[in-house]
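Hi Prof. W.,

I finally got the Late embryogenesis abundant protein LEA-2 subgroup domain-containing protein prediction working! I wasn't sure whether to trim anything, so I left the full sequence exactly as given:
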Amino acid sequence: MPEPHLNGAYYGPSIPPPSKSYHRPSHGGGGGGCCCNPFTCCCSCIFNCICTCIFQILCTLLVIIAVVGFICWFVLRPNKVNFHISDASLTQFDFSTRNNTLYYNLHLNISIRNPNKRIGIYYDSIEARAMYHGQNFSIVKPDPFYQGHKNTTDLNLVFTGQDSVQLGSEYNVEKDSGVYQIGLRLYMRIRFKFGWIKTKKIKPMIKCDLKVPFKGNGTFERTQCNLDW
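And this is what came out:
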């Protein structure tokens, strides 16, 4: 109700203005405030730059290696070296059950063909092992040699002597048939040469599985060998 001593209407006491509230910046991860640390931003930028540079360097190296490899392949055009057993002669292959001794006289001719025009091969060492059903019975080591471009080299291997082995029933079966299944393994250390560059030694193994007729029981068929790294 209006007071009688006042001119006009009175509606109660005056309302004070709203007080201002102040918020301190938050130092933690929560809340509404956000603070940018210049040191953290700088470290993140440097790290990103380093990762980008490393990635670009690796990509560049891969491209260079690919280009150099393609150029070498295009210039050299490497082809696989071929190994064949061109001839085999077996004049003795007798097994004594009394002392488990195998008496043998085996001659093999190996034909090695290097078809490459610009690559020569150093055969630094060769170890030839004659095997019968997984058992070694003789080892010979031909002399080292160098094979030039587009060259065919023949190696004559002679396995003769006696050795103690354990043979099963397959020996009697093959003795009756007159054809023996003999394996040859060539363990080699070789280097390739193109121009004045020589590679490091590598150690391939050549695997030959042969069917060798005993003397007078047929003709040996030329057999290709397989390369096993």
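The mean pLDDT is 82. Does that look reasonable to you?

Thanks,
D.
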